[in-house]
Design goal:
259 residues, alpha/beta, TIM Barrel, two-stranded antiparallel sheet, 9 helices, globular
């Protein structure tokens, strides 16, 4: 386990970039090579009629990180992103502590600033003090984040009908997150509705996920990513390293099964 420094400094460069949602924009696991225009394009591989294309691996965000125990477990077991909650919550963290944790994180794990409906001042302060480039917030507040030139993960709450959600869901080009009416409450959404949404646009599934049900959720919804918070806690706001390990292992196991 790495040594934590009170001043937040480490030999690791600050991991403030957002590698997580950018993948939905067509940059998944690609490298830009010098003079790439001179390289011959590889021939596309056409599968046999009865052979399905392999499913990309499911991305994982561990949300509500507020101490190094949870952060260590998320990084060690392969999380793609961690969420720092700035909204009122048992998992709420202040910008100074979030900044120190981000300085400690490896660059391949993306920090996400999580809000509900922030004011312009709240979002500006958190992003300025932490350097976080990606924010998650209710879809009605997208404009606030874009005003500050931040990558946005809009949250769609599955209390509305599918017919009412789809026009708003499909008009956006970014990855989006679906969950219940209250964040962090462990409320499982209707996976059949989530599956219909995930079939149209890259979707992160959240709400009520645990190490025991995440495999079935992925089989049912086939999401771009999954987001967990209360499902890997021993008590509200306290992450359980064993549950984090088991959750990530369950995701990797079902991904191999679906290849």
């Amino acid at each position: 386990m790495r040594k934590h420094k009170d001043d937040g400094l480490s030999s690791t460069s600050p991991g403030t970039g957002c590698h997580y949602p950018r993948l939905c924009e067509g940059s998944a696991e690609r490298e830009t090579l010098p003079d790439s225009t001179t390289l011959a394009k590889p021939s596309p591989v056409t599968p046999a009629p009865d052979q399905a294309l392999p499913m990309p691996r499911t991305r994982v965000k561990i949300c509500g990180i507020n101490d190094y125990v949870g952060l260590d477990a998320a990084v060690e077991h392969g999380a793609d992103a961690v969420g720092f909650v700035f909204a009122e919550s048992p998992r709420q963290i202040d910008a100074v502590d979030a900044y120190r944790m981000i300085r400690y994180m490896p660059v391949w794990v993306s920090p996400i600033a999580v809000f509900n409906r922030p004011t312009d001042a709240e979002l500006y302060e958190a992003c300025q003090e932490t350097g976080i480039l990606c924010v998650q917030l209710d879809r009605g507040s997208i404009g606030v984040a874009k005003d500050h030139d931040r990558v946005v993960i809009p949250v769609f709450r599955l209390g509305a009908s599918l017919e009412n959600l789809l026009p708003h869901f499909n008009e956006l080009t970014c990855v989006r997150l679906v969950e219940g009416m209250k964040s962090g409450a462990g409320e499982t959404v209707d996976w059949s509705v989530a599956a219909q949404l995930a079939s149209t646009r890259p979707t992160i599934l959240a709400g009520g996920l645990t190490p025991d049900n995440v495999a079935l959720a992925i089989r049912t919804v086939r999401p771009y990513g999954v987001d967990v918070s209360s499902g890997v806690e021993s008590s509200p706001g306290k992450k359980d390293p064993i549950k984090i390990r088991d959750f990530l292992q369950a995701v990797r196991d079902v991904d191999r099964e679906l290849q």
